[in-house]
Amino acid sequence: MDCIFGIFDVLGFTSFCENCDSNNAEKVLKIMDDFETDIPKMVWANLDANNKAPQEKKEIVTSRLRWLVFSDTVFVALPIELSADPDTLKFNLIFFTILVAWINRRMFEIGLPVRGAVHIGDVTISKRCFAGKSIVDAYKLGKRVQVAGTIISEQARAFIFNTFPNPTGFNQMFRNLIIECDVSTGKNTSEKLKTLCWFYLQMGLNERFNIHMNLNRFIREKFTAHGKKLLGQKEKNKVFNTEKLFTEWKIANFLDYQRSISPKTS
Fold first, then answer.
1. Which domain does 22 fall in, by range?
2. What is the per-residue pLDDT across 115-161, written as a single tens digit (0 to 9) for each?
3. In the chain, how many domains are there?
4. How far apart are CA 221 and CA 17, in angstroms?
5. Which member of 41, 198, 256, 258 has the greatest number of CB atoms within 10 A?
């Protein structure tokens, strides 16, 4: 079936397994186990702050999500039907994008930064397994970058903005969520890629992410949470590259804000 999906791997998971005490590990893994129920509820609470959406609509959208959390991998997909009502398609994309942004944010907050990709394509999904060339393509895309971040494939980006062509309303939300940045792809190499920026997502009672002034120290603390170690230069480079990415997110949002308040000229 055609799906828009995200696949995310925890960075430093081996070190987490080797060094995290059992009580702390149980608490963190419980949060991941509950993603399937807790995060959709949170998204609904934000999208339907007045609780006006029919319960059957909530159940239909939530039940269409496909989840798999296994070891260091989180996979979530939402089937898409191009023949569906345009408003239904738009809502499903809004719901899915907010959901994966919150996954990325929550994983970082609990000290398990992830790297991954959001893609679109044909996916075969069973109760406990998933398969398809598009999944391999997404995995390779995410694996290329040396940073705690999620890449939006060109196909997924095009699909989203073709669905929301009007430069107002939710198009603005997607422009704040999908930001092109110079992302490290290895030693002394980088590439301009679309990244999923979860810094400025604010819906309902959920506040924007608290961006710390000392990004390097803050990011390092998240990479080394739960006893994790930065054992080699490659791991240390991911901290540096993530700081660079977060800095670009801050700049992009500031420039967007400046444009929004600048007087319009004819």
1. 2-260
2. 999 999 999 988 778 899 999 999 999 999 999 999 999 999 999 99
3. 1
4. 17
5. 198
pLDDT of residue 71: 83
- E-strand stretches of the chain: 2-10, 66-70, 73-79, 114-122, 124-125, 130-131, 150-152, 178-186, 189-196
Q: How many other CB atoms are found less than 10 A from the CB of residue 120?
A: 22
User: What are the Cα distances from residue 26, in Å, to 9, 113, 162?
Assistant: 18, 17, 42
Name the residue among 29, 84, 34 with its Cα closest to residue 61: 84
Closest by Cα among 160, 189, 153, 191 to 175? 160
In a domain, 266, yes or no: no
Question: Which CATH number characterizes residue 173's domain?
Answer: 3.30.70.1230
Distance CA(235)–CA(147), nearest Å, equals 9
Residue numbers of the chain with a pLDDT score lower than 70: 202-208, 253-266
For residue 202, the model assigns a pLDDT of: 65
Contacts of 162 by beta carbon, 8 Å cutoff, 6+ apart? none
Single pTM value for the model: 0.89
* Pair 154, 194: CB distance under 8 Å: yes
> Distance between CA 202 and CA 19 in Å, rounded?
34
At residue 261, the pLDDT reads: 38
Q: Tell me what pLDDT residue 113 has.
A: 96
Please answer whether residues 183 and 147 qualify as being in contact, where contact means their C-beta atoms are separated by less than 8 angstroms: yes
DSSP run (H or E) holding 201: none
